């Protein structure tokens, strides 16, 4: 029906316009079969991303590499030099990022991969303004290779990129459904938090992210939503502001 001059069109108010989703490597893994990149997880992601795109919500991803390699573990297990091991870990995030790119594009989601370690045959270099432009054009941007520096984590990369692209929030997709006072699998009396302040999370040493990443979010007041990706539709629900996981702000 054509609109009349009196009709007002108010844009739907979603709490977040631009989201940075941090997916750990572990979140990609199938714990039962041991498959490094689980198709069911990818399918859930595709469905959620389609939902967000339909609402005009912009999404960037930082993907971890822990399902493949971690520098610290390499050092502990094989005596691998820490810098070499961390470089291997960052390359693992590139593998995951390319797998995500391939899968998302096959499901009609336009993607650009930007890497912190130059590899021009594989991905664009990370360029802040270009990343923002991609998001504005409706592309999903996947940031890989962490920060490009050893002795860092992909959580730190997520905090950094979230600041750089002016994201409204970090969605930290993990294996657990929320933040608890202690491990709920071991302690049935563990308290589940719906919301928690940065200070309280620090005080209680809840280990939501590594200290540096957490501090970067706190200093710049970027909220962090911690939730599980194993439930279908969780990302979409969280983006719509429904109660999912724990909000740190
Ligand atoms: N890494 C690094 N610098 C970064 C990001 C990651 O050296 O900026 C390395 C580090 O060895 C890390 C590995 O890459 O263990 C994989 O990243 P992470 O452990 O953060 O992945 P996740 O736990 O999210 O799967």
Short key terms for the protein model shown above:
249 residues; alpha/beta; Carbamate kinase; 11 strands; globular; disordered N terminus; binds uridine-5'-diphosphate
Tell me the Rg in angstroms.
Answer: 18 Å
At the first level of CATH, what is the class? Alpha Beta
Listed once per kind, the bound small molecules are:
uridine-5'-diphosphate
Percentage of β-strand residues = 15-25%
Q: Structural class, from helix and strand content?
A: alpha/beta
**For the record, what is the CATH homologous superfamily label?**
Acetylglutamate kinase-like
The CATH topology is given as: Carbamate kinase
Strand order of the largest sheet: 4-3-5-2-1-6-10-11-9
Largest sheet: 9 strands, mixed
> Please, what is the average pLDDT?
92
Q: Based on Cα principal axes, name the global outline.
A: globular
Strand count: 11
CA-to-CA gap between the ends? Answer: 43 Å
CATH architecture: 3-Layer(aba) Sandwich
**Low-confidence stretches at least 5 residues in length (pLDDT < 50)?**
1-11
**Helical content class:** 25-40%
Count of domains: 1
